[in-house]
Design a protein that fits this description.
The complex is a heterotrimer of chains A (365), B (255) and C (185).
Chain A: E1 4-8, H1 9-19, E2 24-27, H2 35-42, H3 45-48, E3 52-55, H4 59-70, E4 76-80, H5 82-97, E5 102-108, H6 124-128, E6 139-141, H7 146-163, E7 166-172, H8 173-177, E8 179-183, H9 193-199, E9 216-217, H10 224-244, E10 248-251, E11 258-261, H11 264-279, E12 284-289, E13 291-293, H12 297-304, E14 309-314, H13 320-328, E15 333-338, H14 347-359
Parallel strand pairs in A: 2-3, 2-4, 4-5, 5-7, 6-7, 11-12, 11-14, 14-15
Antiparallel strand pairs in A: 1-8, 6-13, 10-12
Helix pairs in contact in A: 1-2, 1-7, 4-5, 11-14, 12-13
Chain B: H1 7-10, H2 37-51, E1 57-62, H3 69-72, E2 76-80, H4 85-95, E3 100-106, H5 107-113, H6 115-123, E4 129-134, E5 137-138, E6 144-145, H7 164-167, H8 173-178, E7 183-190, H9 194-212, E8 217-223, H10 227-230, H11 234-248, E9 252-253
Parallel strand pairs in B: 1-2, 1-3, 3-4, 4-8, 7-8
Antiparallel strand pairs in B: 5-6, 7-9
Chain C: E1 2-10, H1 15-28, E2 32-37, E3 47-55, E4 67-72, H2 75-81, E5 85-93, E6 108-111, H3 114-121, H4 127-138, H5 144-154, H6 163-176, E7 178-181
Parallel strand pairs in C: 1-4, 4-5, 5-6
Antiparallel strand pairs in C: 1-3, 2-3, 6-7
Classes of the chains: A alpha/beta (365), B alpha/beta (255), C alpha/beta (185).
């Protein structure tokens, strides 16, 4: 039975992980996401589902524990916040290169450096354009509600195993810390060890049996010709993901004269700005990318044909705006409005920004 | 005449005294002639074969000379980032507690970049085997100073010999982790003489049996040579090992 | 209907849990809710605040800079949030420790002697429920039965025996709330 609960985004992710039948979680505390491991420890998932939760000695160790477990075909996840995610980047690159399925949650805080514990979206580039070394991609999902924090856990693992690729949930301190109503998914049973071995026999390292060749998980290939071929295979996979896994949400994009483009909690703030605009006689809309990679370029390009301009609102100095500019390709005016370093833009501030930067004069178009 | 004799004729029934374990692949080892890695690989695979646990063993080889161990060991293997093998092994063991998991690490990997992972895996009593080949140098990258490089020993990054004042002391990590309650077995062995090879195999066997009996972490250090890195002939490097390495890294069980 | 509330005071006054009970009560009444705390080390003994939104439509921004209601429990919070109450909005405060009274003329202002009443009840922890009772008397956005359900949901089971005491405190707050000013313009 589905239960309605009032939960923090961080708690919702943790609870959803237990219910999704995740096998192992490895993490290290860091604000503003420590409730994830705290909730997991409190809930005794080992008794509920057999899920293993371990506090590692560092973020580096945690991501490598994920690597080890994921390479055995288990559902493995970790979570952290910005500085901790930077530490995980080496491991993430290895995981992407070795084509392992796993979930990494980043509850973003302001940077650079130790930065601040307040919310931010300044890890967009790191999440969608690499972060670690080499040509690889993560599938990146950006929740904007506590409900999505819960829902995206199962979705992430579905995608991760479908493509054997790491998935990142890119959240932020607002969604991690706030409480909302959430309908929790039903409890799924974890796969048995035997089922994992059977299902992922073609690649998982579970011990070489007589009926198969040994499985090797590695990202090393010293011959450049073969390393290039591996890269080509990865790119083919990424192309397939780009064709099939784009997700977004539209608010009033059919009729709007101008739109916001924003993800995560910034999108929530823009929704309020749309309401403020309505009171003042403006017809505004919002395109909210849910998958940040693959990026919903086509729909943004289509909308560019019918609106007078777009304001990209982010809690950073201008990151996703580059992808929007590429998508729009000069068809219409695109500007960025951001607050950063842990500052959160207010809905009114955002509304004023679209008036000044995009609408201009009396009727901008 | 000798040219016409086939291997089958040489190895007549009943005359076979030694054969390569089936758990070593037929791939020619990429290690330098005279290097100890080949022996330690073989011993590890022999133990796994003799215990009949190939179908439930997963090995982890991180960056170092033995990063390609998976080319030679006919078991499921994971290649790990530099220093992270004990964390990767933790992930495997926690996900599949009934499997046998071992790491195969060099001294730079285990005692420098991976010190944290080593200590904490041992401290958690992760039920794994750590095989630690210590040759006092970074072999793969071309003979740079390692955390285990002896005082006065030359390497490409200590070309005038390791200067303790400037570069610090060599580290005895096996003794360090032996002090942790999570470690059930810590031993130091060598493979440059036949008798020592047999002892090393016994130690590796004991380590895997400890894992079977869920006793905690076992660490088997093998003091080895690196004739290329040390810039010596294989014979000379073994002599040098005997004369210099063993006085600082004495052989025997530590715990 | 959308009610946007800021509750602000010292850490330890029960600011966050008051917000949580209010939000849970909203859920019991089949409303959309959000609860967004200030977080971080400043909470430990410093100021704490939480934004609670209760609405019958999907909630947009959980972070706001203007509010329908401000519930103010210390001087710093008065200084910070009095100006952010919407015109015609509501400000409720506990005069205990307030040295600079609110000056706005365009909002409704109420006081509740939460700390004093809690002392009378003999349990300082009932403070936040007294204040909640005062607020719900002035603006009954959730029914009492739903508040009790909300309490039951948000308190861990080992504290359920305290529900009657909390109910008493809420009722006390409703009785003792005092109108100081009706907005003028």
């Amino acid at each position: 039975m589905n239960e309605v609960k009032l939960m923090k985004g961080n708690e919702a992710i943790a609870e959803a992980a237990i219910r999704a039948g995740v096998d192992v979680y490895f993490g290290y505390p860091i604000t503003p996401q420590s409730e994830i491991i705290e909730h997991l420890m409190l809930e005794k998932p080992h008794e509920r589902t057999g899920m293993v939760v371990l506090q590692a000695e560092s973020e580096i160790a945690a991501i490598n524990m994920v690597y080890g477990a994921a390479a055995c075909g288990k559902m493995a996840m970790t979570s952290s916040s910005s500085p901790g995610i930077s530490l995980k980047m080496e491991g993430i690159s290895y995981i992407a290169a070795s084509e392992l399925p796993c979930l990494i949650v980043n509850v973003v805080r302001g940077g650079p450096g130790l930065g601040t514990i307040q919310p931010s979206q300044s890890d967009y580039f790191q999440a969608v354009k690499g972060g670690g070394h080499g040509d690889y991609r993560l599938i990146v999902l950006a929740p904007s509600t506590v409900q999505e924090m819960a829902d995206f856990v199962e979705l992430s693992f579905e995608l991760a195993f479908k493509y054997r690729n790491p998935v990142m949930i890119l959240s932020d301190g607002i969604i991690g810390q706030m409480m909302e109503k959430v309908v929790l998914p039903p409890q799924r049973q974890r796969l048995s060890d035997e089922e994992v071995e059977r299902r992922y026999k073609s690649w998982a390292t579970t011990g070489k049996t007589a009926d198969r060749e040994r499985n090797i998980i590695t990202s090393l290939e010293l011959k450049p010709e073969r390393q290039e071929q591996h890269n080509i295979n990865l790119q083919d996979k990424y192309k397939k993901i780009s064709e099939n896994e784009i997700r977004y949400e539209e608010f009033n994009c059919e009729d709007a004269d101008y739109i916001f483009v924003a993800f995560g909690s910034s999108a929530r703030i823009c929704q309020k700005a749309i309401l403020i605009g309505k009171e003042e006689g403006y017809n505004l809309g919002l395109l909210r990318p849910i998958s940040l990679w693959p990026f919903p370029s086509n729909i943004i390009n289509e909308i560019a044909d019918r609106v007078g301009g777009m304001l990209v609102v982010e809690m950073n100095a201008g990151q996703m705006v580059e992808d929007v500019l590429l998508a729009v390709n000069g068809k219409v005016k695109v500007k960025h409005f951001g607050r950063f370093g842990g500052m959160i833009p207010s809905p009114r501030e955002v509304f004023i920004a679209i008036k000044q930067k995009i609408i201009g004069g009396k009727n901008g178009k | 005449m000798a040219n016409n004799i086939t291997p089958e004729e040489i190895i007549k029934k009943g005359k076979l005294v030694f054969s390569k374990t089936a758990l070593m692949t037929d791939k020619v080892l990429s290690y330098c002639p005279g290097c100890g890695h080949g022996v330690v690989h073989r011993l590890t695979m022999e133990v796994i074969e003799e215990m009949g646990i190939q179908d439930k063993t997963i090995g982890v080889a991180p960056v170092g000379c033995s990063v390609l161990a998976y080319e030679f060991m006919n078991i499921d293997m994971q290649q790990a980032p530099h220093g992270r093998a004990p964390a990767v092994a933790t992930g495997i063991k926690r996900a599949f507690p009934d499997k046998f998991v071992f790491t195969y690490q060099g001294d730079g990997d285990l005692a420098a970049i991976g010190t944290s992972e080593t200590i904490h895996a041992c401290n958690r009593a992760e039920n794994i085997v750590i095989i630690f080949v210590n040759n006092g140098i970074y072999g793969m990258t071309g003979g740079q100073m390692a955390p285990t490089t002896l005082e006065g020993m030359k390497s490409s990054t200590s070309p005038y010999g390791r200067d303790i004042e400037m570069m610090g002391h060599p580290i005895k990590i096996t003794e360090m982790v032996a002090g942790l309650p999570g470690v059930c077995f810590a031993t130091r062995q060598a493979v440059h003489k036949p008798g020592l090879v047999r002892k090393t195999k016994k130690a590796i066997r004991k380590a895997f049996e400890n894992q079977r009996d869920k006793k905690g972490t076992s660490i088997v250090e093998v003091v080895s040579n690196c004739n290329s890195g040390w810039k010596m002939t294989p014979v000379k490097s073994n002599e040098w090992l005997e004369e210099n390495m063993l006085s600082f890294f004495p052989l025997g069980d530590i715990k | 209907m959308t009610e946007e509330i800021i509750i602000a005071g010292f850490g330890g006054q029960g600011v966050l849990s008051m917000g949580k009970i209010l939000a849970y009560s909203g859920i019991m009444q089949d409303r959309e809710v959000s609860w967004m705390p200030s977080y971080g080390p400043e909470m430990r003994g410093g100021t704490a605040n939480v934004t609670v939104i209760i609405s019958d439509v999907r909630i947009s921004s959980p972070v706001l800079t203007e509010y329908d209601t401000a519930i103010i429990l210390n001087q710093q919070s008065m200084d910070k949030f009095e100006k952010d109450v919407k015109k015609g909005g509501l400000l409720i405060y506990d005069p205990n420790g307030i040295i600079r009274k609110p000056v706005r003329k365009d909002i409704d202002i109420y006081t509740i002697e939460g700390a004093k009443e809690a002392a009378k009840i003999g349990n300082s922890k009932t403070f936040n429920m007294i204040v909640l009772g005062a607020y719900l008397k002035v603006n009954p956005i959730v029914k009492m039965e739903n508040v009790l359900k909300g309490l039951r949901k948000s308190l861990p089971e080992r504290h359920h025996h305290l529900i009657p005491l909390n109910e008493k405190a809420i009722k006390m707050g409703a009785k003792k709330v005092n109108n100081v000013q009706k907005h003028c313009c």
